[in-house]
From TrEMBL:
Protein name in UniProt: Type II secretion system protein J
Domain of life assignment: Bacteria
Compartments, record wording: Cell inner membrane
Gene this chain is encoded by: gspJ
Membrane topology type: Single-pass membrane protein
Cellular component GO terms held in the UniProt record: plasma membrane; type II protein secretion system complex
One GO term (biological process): protein secretion by the type II secretion system
Coiled coil: 33-60
Entries under Pfam families matching the protein: N_methyl (PF07963), T2SSJ (PF11612)
Protein family membership: Belongs to the GSP J family.
Length: 207
């Protein structure tokens, strides 16, 4: 005659303890993988934003043109870098519907330290009344530091190099050789250098 034996209380407690340990380890692994996935997704989003900002500035600088702007009747240099303010004239605006839209516009990069954001402002016309509202978009978030220098070829913190009379049109049209941007985004420092291509734009325009 055989007797059936079940699990003893000690065996059950040991089995429960082992299951609890394995469950805890499994949850920790799952939680770790979820956090890694979230960090990777955030890193990819940040990297994508940096790449898009770099490409946008690259397109803008490649389309920079030696054309002055007019604000409230005052002639402005083709490129201005004064007290952290940076703007310049560019071409490349398309008019597929033939609405007599100017092919030229004015863009400005504006860093707002209180928001830790870099903005791109775009004026659709080189001639402004001073009340014109630009199209504004955020280029970068979490920007801890931002600085622009012009290269001609030496680094300069302002442009034009010296005070230029508003009647000196040729001097107002001068562009530097390039620009250098130093920025810190999420504790990582970057240095971007862009060439301002010197073209025969004015000659072609006159012809």
């Amino acid at each position: 005659m055989s007797t059936k034996k079940g699990f003893t209380l000690v065996e059950l407690l040991v089995a429960i303890a082992i299951f609890a340990v394995l469950s805890a380890l499994g949850w920790k692994v799952f939680d770790y993988l979820a956090k890694v996935k979230d960090r990777n997704a955030m890193h990819e989003a940040n990297l994508e934003q940096l790449q898009e900002s770099y490409q946008q500035i690259l397109r803008d600088t490649m389309q920079a043109v030696p054309l002055t702007a007019n604000v409230k009747g005052q002639q402005q240099p083709a490129l201005v870098l004064q007290n952290g303010r940076f703007n310049f004239s560019k071409t490349g605006v398309t008019d597929p519907l033939q609405q007599s839209i100017s092919p030229h516009e004015r863009v400005e990069y504006q860093y707002r330290a209180d928001e830790k954001k870099l903005y791109r402002l775009k004026y659709r016309n080189l001639h402004q009344t001073g009340n014109d509202q630009p199209e504004s978009s955020v280029m970068l978030d979490e920007v801890e530091a931002f600085e622009i220098m012009v290269l001609n070829p030496n680094e300069l913190s302002s442009w034009p190099e010296s005070s230029v009379d508003s009647q000196q049109t040729e001097q107002l049209r001068l562009l530097p050789k390039g620009i250098k941007i130093n920025l810190t985004v999420r504790d990582v420092q970057y240095e971007w250098i862009f060439s301002l291509l010197q073209t025969d734009f004015l000659k072609k325009k006159d012809n």
